[in-house]
Amino acid sequence: MASASILLLIPQNHHPRIIPHGVSFALGALLSVAFLDLLPDAIQSGGQENTKLIMVTVLAGILGFFLLEKLLIWRHCHADHCETHTGDHFHQPAGTLIVMGDAIHNFVDGILIAAAFLTDVQLGIVTSLAVAAHEIPQEVGDFAILLESGYGRGQALFYNLLSSFATLVGGVFAFFFLNHLQGALPYILALAASSFIYIAVADLIPSLHQKTTAREAFQQIGLIIAGVLAIYWANAQTHPTGGYVPSSIEKKMEITH
User: Fold this and answer.
1) Dihedral of the alpha carbons of 139, 140, 143, 145, in degrees to the nearest 10
2) Contact 33, 101 (CB under 8 A)
3) Per-residue buried b or exposed e for 12-41, using 16+ beta carbons within 10 Å of the residue's own CB
4) Would you say 95 and 160 are in contact if contact means Cβ atoms under 8 Å apart?
5) What digits encode the pLDDT tens for the residues 180-212?
6) Are the C-beta atoms of 104 and 191 separated by less than 8 Å?
């Protein structure tokens, strides 16, 4: 969160020039989180036999976020031409969806941190540091999206902070109901992945295509790759074995009453 809020230090008159670059970075980060992190973890924790059902959850999530965004657009604009449909910014629903998707992701992080601490305090500390390192590039991208969506700097900071509280909610929830969460965790991860995929494909990519010069295209590609590499590097440092949930945590989550 602190790394993301560094964008507050940038004078607002420079935002139109700088924030679009952050959106390109965010695109790479969101797609990487979805395809290199959340979905593999969902399949690993759910088992190969449930892969198809997990993919159905992703598909249902994408369609659900489409319907939700459509409802939000109708809520914000009842005319054919308004600031929701025109202008250089994303429409406001894109910011709403990124907050929702990030909250789901943070909720899962809270569950994993709580499970780690209930397994072993040292493992809990290591897992907390791993989650924090993993979140930095994504939070920077999310903050840029909120600013580009038309949120003020104070609003973007508030909603980013609000979504981060889902980590605490997930931790408290896991403390009391950890033994019931094993079956639901893969589908929560899949739902979070679907939100990031939808935002990237439906909102970020079309906005980047509005820039048509060769120079802007190469800048976008470079920043997208940077977002991908940032998430890949974070995963390599924090999950060297390739799994998001350490086996000791998985065993803890399989404990029944």
Assistant:
1) -110
2) no
3) eeebeeebbbbbbbbbbbbbbbbebbbbbb
4) no
5) 777 887 888 888 888 889 888 887 888 788 887
6) yes
Q: Could you tell me the two tokens for 118?
A: 């209930």
Phi–psi pair at 184, nearest 5 degrees: -85, -25
- Provide the token pair at 256: 């029944």
Q: Cβ distance 32 to 232 under 8 Å? A: yes
Which tokens belong to 101? 């998707």
Is this structure's pTM higher than 0.85? no
Tell me the percentage of the chain whose pLDDT exceeds 90. Answer: 11
Q: Give long-range contacts, CB 8 A cutoff, 24+ apart: 208-211.
A: 208/20, 208/23, 208/24, 208/27, 210/88, 211/20
Q: Which is it for the CA torsion 15, 16, 17, 20, positive or negative?
A: positive
d(CA 116, CA 250): 9
Take residue 169 and report the two structure tokens written for it. 């909610």
Instruction: Enter the tokens of residue 130.
Output: 């791993």
Tokens of 47: 């088992």
27 Cβ contact list (under 8 Å, min separation 6): 141, 200, 204, 205, 208, 224, 227
